[in-house]
Amino acid sequence: MGTSNRTNTSNRTNTTKRSVDELLAEAREELDRLEPLDAAAAQVEGALLVDIRYAALRERDGTIPGALIVERNELEWRLDPQCDHRLPEATHHDLRVVVVCNEGYASSFAAVSLRRLGLARATDLIGGFQAWRAAGLPVS
């Protein structure tokens, strides 16, 4: 019998069965989520608004002026200040980041992931881009 190179990850992986709603509620407990007007004020004060929506939604609905476009699958690499693939704006771990998705669900998970990278001020926009637009805030 040969030996396996696989490592037993049972000690590192939580296999408790939970619903996505439970995971989302847990994620949001870590965040100081922002309403659209508060997110707009944060942007004026220097926070990075990061739009993680996919291209079809941006083409259909528009974008938030000044927001960085970083699709979800690249987010951690682009915003990690220690990564060679980071964006020029990802200068330090104290950066205030407000993640924006379409309706405010995926952004919560994304913001928690950024917090795990050490971006302790990362959060998301309640209601996402749709709430931003409904609040009458600028869209291009």
UniProtKB/TrEMBL annotation:
UniProt lists compositionally biased (Low complexity) regions at 1-17
Q: Which Pfam families match?
A: Rhodanese
Gene3D superfamilies annotated for this entry? Answer: Rhodanese-like domain (3.40.250.10)
Q: Where is this region: Disordered?
A: 1-20
Q: Which residues form the Rhodanese domain?
A: 43-140
Protein origin, superkingdom: Bacteria
Q: Which InterPro entries match?
A: Rhodanese-like_dom, Rhodanese-like_dom_sf
Task: Write down what this protein is called.
Answer: Rhodanese-like domain-containing protein
